[in-house]
Amino acid sequence: MSQRKIKTFFIRTFGCQMNEHDSQRMRNLLVSHGLRPAESDREADLVIVNSCSVRAKPEHKALSEAGRYQRERQNQGMKVVLAGCVAQQSGKQILRKAPYIDGIMGTDAVVRLPQLLAQVQAGKGPVIDVREHDESNPCFVPPTPTYKPGISAQVTIMKGCNNFCSYCIVPYVRGREASKPCADILAEVEQLAHAGCREVFLLGQNVNSYHDPSGMNFAQLLQAIDQQAAVDRIRFISSHPKDLSPSLTDAMAKIDRVCEHIHLGLQSGSDRILRLMNRGYDAGQFLEKALALREQVPGVSITTDIIVGFPSETDRDFQDTLEVVSKIGFDQAFSFKYSPRPGTAAARMPDDVAEPCKAERLATLQDLLSKLGDDSLARLCGRSHTILVEKQAARSPEALSGRTRCNRVVNFEPQSGTQVGFLAQVAIAEVRGHTLWGKEEPEPLLRS
Ligand code: 5AD
Ligand code: SF4
Predict the structure, then answer these.
(1) What does the alpha-carbon distance between residue 379 and residue 373 come to, in Å, rounded to a whole number?
(2) Which of 69-73, 86-90, 183-187 has the highest mean pLDDT?
(3) Please, which residues bridge with residue 387 across strands?
(4) Could you point out which of 32, 123, 271, 346 has its C-alpha 20 to 30 Å from the C-alpha of 232?
(5) 196 and 104: one domain?
């Protein structure tokens, strides 16, 4: 079959915010090279599946997703590229399992997407680029000049991870930590602000490990972005509890632009399991840091990730997790059944918690987390909060939607010409489903 010219594309994304952000970067690059987003995957000339390998389920999903287009590929010459963590990790071997792929593009290849695409277009498939970044070539993708960000935009400040938690594939896939120089971050924030963005979300596997070549640390980076004053709000994700320094808690307490939300993965509340996980803290240290945050940063939202059924986890260990979760009262959480990842240290331990037991522990944990989440929402009601307005509310055309400083979505009916991009003072009245609803007020009552 003659080569079909690649004019349109469709990207399917699995996994974390890092992947979401990489997909957005790919979208910008493709648009700046003259391609158009397709209305649907089936109509696209090129489908990119941006995959996640953090657990077995998303990995299988991504591969079966890439396999769905075999007919279009054969009959219409559609091109299919597998990107992201599965691509990076399995490289060439994937072609044995999935010969229906035209390109394999690792996590650090985003910057080289146009070259990869030219080769795919020329029929030189399967094309493989799984080169990893290193200190001298960290492969950060600069924003394209035509990029139109939303009110909130993400900025990658560091990538990779040096922690090697025993269950986690990320250090093997995303490589060692590399930080983007502060001057580049400030230039990117400036460019985003110029294009209408009011809030930046600083992204990294472990933002507290940030250190730019001049020796600047994460708390100092927050200060530098604050001093630049280009945006109203600064957020960040994710933070590792062992590296949560007093200077970061202090920065959150003192810098007004830094919002009161922190994502701190607990993973387990059992000291024995935390040791096996190689997390570098015990439950007492986690509690101490989380409670210090609650005290020093009023209204802070603490969210987390938890794994149940790690090798050898007993009922007692699981009870310890429930206890720590209750004491901290997480505002929101993601929870997972342990899933062995090939090549990790934990994969050499017997996966000995039976599946029904994992399922039962997950259900018990999720019941508790959902109750704590409801309490957290209820605490926001009856108070006035500053909302950064992001968009029209879904299914309520007369209402606007935005987020509190602690990252909760609030819908409200605007009173006085308030528009997307404005900061509005909203008295939160009630919870409908999982969304808060409120009324805009002319003057702030209590700043939150
Ligand atoms: N099994 C289950 N959950 C995992 N996570 C990472 N690796 C695994 C695994 N092997 C979870 C952790 C992490 C989140 C992104 O995914 O909770 O914080
Ligand atoms: Fe994985 Fe641990 Fe690194 Fe997070 S800190 S990415 S859980 S190894």
Answers:
(1) 10
(2) 183-187
(3) 424
(4) 32
(5) no
Q: Is the CB of 206 under 6 A from ligand 1?
A: no
Ligand 1 nearest-atom number relative to CA 169: 7
Q: What is the mean pLDDT of residues 212-221?
A: 94
Is residue 276, in this structure, part of any structural domain at all? yes
Asked if 25 and 111 sit in the same domain, the reply is: yes
Nearest CA to ligand 1 atom 13: 305
Residue of 52, 88, 161, 274 best suited for mutating to test ligand 2, as the one with most atoms within 8 Å of CB = 161
User: Residue 438 corresponds to which amino acid?
Assistant: G
Residue in 129, 90, 137, 134 with CA at minimum distance from that of residue 110: 129
What is the distance in A from the centroid of ligand 1 to the CA of 363?
Answer: 17
Q: Among 358, 375, 392, identify where a domain stops.
A: 375
pLDDT digit string (tens) for 41-55? 999 999 999 999 999
- For ligand 2, atom 1: residue with the closest CA: 168
Q: Are residues 125 and 237 in the same domain?
A: no
Separation CA 415–CA 202 (nearest Å): 32
Q: Which of 431, 405, 419, 407 is nearest to 440 (CA)?
A: 419
- Which two tokens mark 216? 């600047």
Residue 108 CB partners (closer than 8 Å, separation 6+) = 88, 131, 132, 133, 139, 175
Asked, for residue 147, whether it belongs to a domain, the answer is no
Show the domain range for 15: 8-129
Q: At 435, which helix (H) or strand (E)? A: strand 435-440
Number of independent structural domains in the chain: 3
171 lines ligand 2 (CB under 6 A): yes
Task: Answer yes or no: do 206 and 106 share one domain.
Answer: no
325: its two tokens: 């979760």
Q: Quick one: 260 and 158 in the same domain? A: yes
Last residue of a domain, one of 350, 375, 400: 375
Q: Which of 136-140, 307-311, 373-377 has the lowest mean pLDDT?
A: 136-140
Same domain, 299 and 214: yes
| Cut 0.90: pTM above it | yes
Residue 387 Cβ inside 6 Å of ligand 2? The answer reads no
Question: Could you give the CA distance from residue 364 to residue 353 in angstroms, rounded to a whole number?
Answer: 15
The finding on whether 334 has its CB within 6 A of some atom of ligand 2 is: no
Residue-wise pLDDT tens digits, 389-407: 999 998 888 899 999 999 9
Q: What is the mean pLDDT of residues 290-304?
A: 97
**Which of 5, 186, 195, 11 minimizes the C-alpha distance to 113?**
11
Instruction: Write the pLDDT tens digit of every residue in 78-89.
Output: 999 999 999 998
How far is ligand 1, taken at its centre, from the CA of residue 171, in Å? 12
- For atom 2 of ligand 2, the residue with the nearest CA is 165
C-alpha to C-alpha distance for 126 and 203, rounded to whole angstroms: 31
pLDDT at 446: 39
